[in-house]
Design a protein that fits this description.
There is one protein chain. The chain is an alpha/beta fold. The N and C termini lie far apart (about 60 Å). The structure holds ribulose-5-phosphate (5RP). Ribulose-5-phosphate binds next to α10.
Length: about 290
């Protein structure tokens, strides 16, 4: 039985060895069936292999945070710049026009709010698979608290969501949550990402960190990064670039977009990094030209 003591640390990540593609562009997903591949091809651009997701699900734990006071005013106009919309069913149904025809990654857990002492206590399913299908979801996002109080329940939720997802061909996005008391180390992010992939997530959302190429290499499915708290635009674009250069397949960003003074231009600059291979400096120059 594997245990927590006396293990040898991972060391050989075969960073120079390309991943076997099994005949499909998305990493590790060549053996899934047609419906799943079709949805993955809406989530990830088959040409670049990457995705720009717009995360605006924060209200489900944070309420009306800055930039999300009126989703119809601030988020709806930004959706055209995204490949994928990540939000709750309540936010999407009430504020996002269905005519936009963007892939939806439905936030499908409920979690504890900012008023709760320990936000890592965890979650359960926030909507059932039938409602996700009714919303035409291309993916379900399941938050997991690896190492937190909610580890067991949230991993159970992920497994049951993956069962339902495989049944109907809907990929699961495993989200590695970071709680107040939880680790934010490369070892943590690589362990949490790998766990979620092994338990059935078709792609994983985590945070950029030092040594990110090892986090990516040891996760058998695509990784997208969250943006985290608002940074100056130049730093946020540099972080996107570093994540992509380390092998990430896109971003699922929220606050660094909708809390920017120029969210549409920020989205366009992020697209340049994710889909066109711009580096951080080139993307920031593009951003500055665009805002002027
Ligand atoms: C929280 C989430 C959020 O959607 C995501 O982290 C928000 O993105 P950002 O950090 O870029 O504001 O999944 O677990």
């Amino acid at each position: 039985m594997a245990d927590a003591v006396g293990n040898k640390d991972a060391k050989n990540y075969y960073l120079d060895t390309p991943v076997t593609d099994n005949g499909f562009f998305a990493k590790g997903l060549g053996n899934t069936d047609w419906g799943m591949k079709n949805r993955l091809s809406r989530l990830f651009n088959p040409k670049s292999g990457n995705t720009v997701m717009l995360a605006f699900d924060h209200g489900y734990i944070m309420g009306p945070t800055a930039g999300l006071e009126r989703l119809d005013v601030t988020i709806a106009p930004l959706c055209e710049y995204a490949d994928v919309l990540m939000g709750t069913r309540g936010a999407i149904r009430s504020c996002i026009p269905p005519t936009l025809n963007k892939a939806v990654c439905l936030r499908a857990t409920h979690d504890t709010s900012v008023f709760f002492d320990d936000m890592s206590v965890g979650s359960g399913l926030g909507c059932d698979i039938e409602d996700a299908i009714r919303m035409n979801a291309s993916a379900l996002a399941i938050q997991c608290f690896v190492g937190g109080a909610g580890e067991r329940d949230s991993l159970e939720t992920l497994c049951r969501a993956a069962d339902a997802g495989y049944k109907y061909g809907i990929p699961i996005l495993g989200v590695t949550a970071v709680g107040k008391e939880m680790e934010r180390t490369p070892r943590y992010f690589s362990t949490a990402s790998r766990l979620l992939a092994e338990l059935g997530a078709s792609f994983v959302k985590t945070y950029y960190c030092e040594g990110f190429e090892k986090v990516v290499a040891s996760c058998p499915v695509p990784i997208v990064i969250a943006g985290g708290k608002k940074l100056p635009e130049q730093e946020a674009l540099e972080m996107c670039y570093k994540a992509m250069a380390s092998g990430a397949h896109g971003v699922d960003m929220g606050r660094n977009v909708f809390q920017s003074e120029h969210p549409a231009e920020m989205m366009s600059a992020i697209r340049k990094v994710v889909h066109e291979g711009f580096n951080g400096a080139e993307a920031f120059e593009f951003y500055q030209d665009a805002i002027h």
